[in-house]
Amino acid sequence: MDTIDVSNLNRQFLFRSKDVGRPKADVAADFINSRIPRCRVVPHFKKIQDLDETFYRQFHIIVCGLDSIVARRWINGMLLSLLVYEDGEVDQTSIIPLVDGGTEGFKGNARVILPGLTACIDCTLELYPPQINFPMCTIATMPRLPEHCIEYVRILQWPKEIPFGDGVALDGDDPEHIQWVFQRSLERAAEFNITGVTYRLTQGVVKRIIPAVASTNAVIAAACTTEVFKLATSAYVPLSNYMVFNDVDGLYTYTFEAERKENCSACSQIPQDLHFSPSSKLQEVLDHLTESASL
Question: Would you say residue 293 has pLDDT above 60?
């Protein structure tokens, strides 16, 4: 669903300066199809949520290069919903393996998930780094960092001033939106004698951009590709089931088997007892289910 930005060019080898502004999916597909004979990549320039189960059911293997936990949980839930159970046992012909990889600077991970058999995304949410959030009191009254000023504009000024009309959400890929936030952030920073607000930083804060290192991306991409090869050919047993990579100081890699949670809200087949008093309101039930799903 994303388009190519100048900041993307140094992280990979599919995009060139002439491609800035074009859909990433379309450019990547064109590059691969022209480079590799008899290869046919079909791009889809849209959100993963825009495609239904019929679309996902057609694949033998799914590889994730997603940039958010929310998106990973969505695809995880979709693959779990495609499973067929007979007498409490999963029909293995309904399993679509998921190969997932992610990086953050000089750190990365790769994993192989067999839905219904191994730990799923929701089973291991604690393995993902928490998203950085700033206290609202700091943003509103005591900003000290340029990021505080940008967050103030994003969270408070945008919905208050509705600069592009009612119902228009802030789009991190829209240059006009980012420019508006950038200018207001500069004004906010000037009030508190804060320096360091730049257009690039504004875009990074709004889009939650995580610094990327091309070499780390290449290592994780290679690991994911190797696992796809194993799964597609049955040449070797795939990763079981989580690999950590770190080259911040030297080179470190470690593989371990993440275990399924019996009470996982996504993949557990064990009935969960929910106890509510007769006077409980629907909102209390919804709050409980929402909290359970986010743990």
Answer: no
